[in-house]
Amino acid sequence: MTSLTLYEHPLNEQVRIYLRLEYLLSQLDEVSGLSAPCHHIQFFRSLFDLQEILEQVQVKADLAKDLDKLKKKLKAWADVPQVDQTQLNQLLDQLAAHQRAVLQAKRFGQALKEDRFLTSIKQRFSIPGGSCSFDLPNFHYWLHQPLAARQSAIQAWMETLAPLRHALAFWLQLTRESAHGGTATVQQGFYQQEADGACLIRLKISPDLGVYPLVSGHKNRFAIRFMPFDDDHEVADNMSVHISVC
Q1: How far is CA 227 from CA 8, 25, 188, 200, 235, in A?
Q2: Among 52, 59, 58, which Cα is nearest to 24's?
Q3: What is the pLDDT of residues 120-144, one digit of tens each?
Q4: Which domains does the chain carry?
Q5: Distance (Å, whole) CA 129 – CA 101
């Protein structure tokens, strides 16, 4: 049986930023432990993309507010019958720990901005092929340091992002776990639905259908147009896809 492909689409700008940050942090995690120079070049590209977002947006303040909103929602469950109070208290304790870590941290990305080596190479990485040895001889020197030294430096940079990574992962996990929905029938390649204050939709689509979704919408309503990937596929008159709203 063919596995379903998961698509996620944010319904507000804040969640859009969170998903981009999660995507970049995932890339950093994937390549940070690898040893080849090409892997380290990809690490720095993802790191500088992440840094660019953190310099443009007050992620720390926004995430702190969203964690506080989440705490109020969780506390509202305390009076609901048959709620697992032990699990609820564990979640509240985890949330409180993430809140403290976020509030005590510097502005996210500040330590990266203050790093002399990163600052000296960041601009060249915006140029196609700008990481060549003649453009960045200091970076070329770094790439030829012992692997242990390179990985130690990478770990130190990653550690500065730990409060962001952990708090963001926690918020996204609970947001995704709040999803409700099921199988929906798509007619003529189009689907729309009321969202009622949602912030994220998740779609699971069989790749055998040969289509991908184009989503538009906001917290109260969204619409999806399913497009054929290439000329060899046509959009079926009726399709079944799984749609969840968070």
Answers
A1: 16, 29, 11, 21, 7
A2: 52
A3: 999 999 999 999 999 999 999 999 9
A4: 13-174 (1.10.3900.10), 179-245 (2.60.440.10)
A5: 38
